[in-house]
Amino acid sequence: MKILRLFLDFAGDIYKNKFVIYQLTRRDYKNRYIGSFLGFVWTIIQPFVMILVLWIVFTKGFKAGPVGDGIPFIAYLSIGMIAWTLFSDVLLGATNVFHEYSYLVKKVNFRFAILPIVKILSSFITHLIFIGIGIGILLISGVSISFWWLEIVYYLFGMMVLLLGVSWILSSLQVFVRDVAQIVSVLLQFGFWFTPIVWDFNLIPLDLQWIFRLNPMFYIVEGYRNSFIYGQPFWGDPKFALYFWGVTLVILLVGVLLFRRLRPHFADVL
Predict the structure, then answer these.
(1) Where are the domains of the chain?
(2) Residue 81 CA to chain centroid, in angstroms?
(3) In this predicted model, what pLDDT tens digit does every residue of 86-123 receive, in sequence order?
(4) Can you give the C-alpha Rg of the chain in angstroms?
(5) Which end of the chain has fewer CB atoms within 10 angstroms, the N or the C?
């Protein structure tokens, strides 16, 4: 009951501070492009160039052909990159969020537990633009519009819950250990190649596939593809779904407990 009360209290804080969250998200999104001539266009250019480079390397250099059921590699790659970009952007931003908003953390009456949500929502705006670009790539690649595209709401919600838990853990630790941000950056580079974004998971031997499925982002990336490309229902693999939500809720619980334990000392350290 105590754990349930913690989540209900936090949900209540989000509702009470919805206007504050909106204002902070708006300001955070604008602050990304202060002094930049092209502004938010850079958030599109960078991942787009990354997709283009990987597509050229794998199709022209490694001669990668269609994936799965004849799906063009550019479509397969783009959808995976869209999911991973949101995940990595949020973690890179949220890890240092309490330092970035230290002036708010030091205020006695401010519910700074909402700050990681600001980073999630700020990146979510760009994510919607990426989804639009991804849909354009799918249509050009010959993938038809499908009812299953609506499933993306489920996988997006799952990633948001996962990101919230991980963000609380990392941002809380970063206050006391400044090396956490650097460690996260390195782990994200490793995670990019450990997750089937640029390579076909079916190439992995069956007896080793379970190792890669331990990664929660595997479920999300494959879920994005199942929604946009393959048209498969999210309830098609209930055991994998239960594993993902079990791990995600444990991470969220750890994040809540760790944040509450370290919160009283934030103002002193910052």
Answers:
(1) 14-269
(2) 11
(3) 999 999 888 888 888 877 777 767 777 788 888 898 88
(4) 19
(5) N
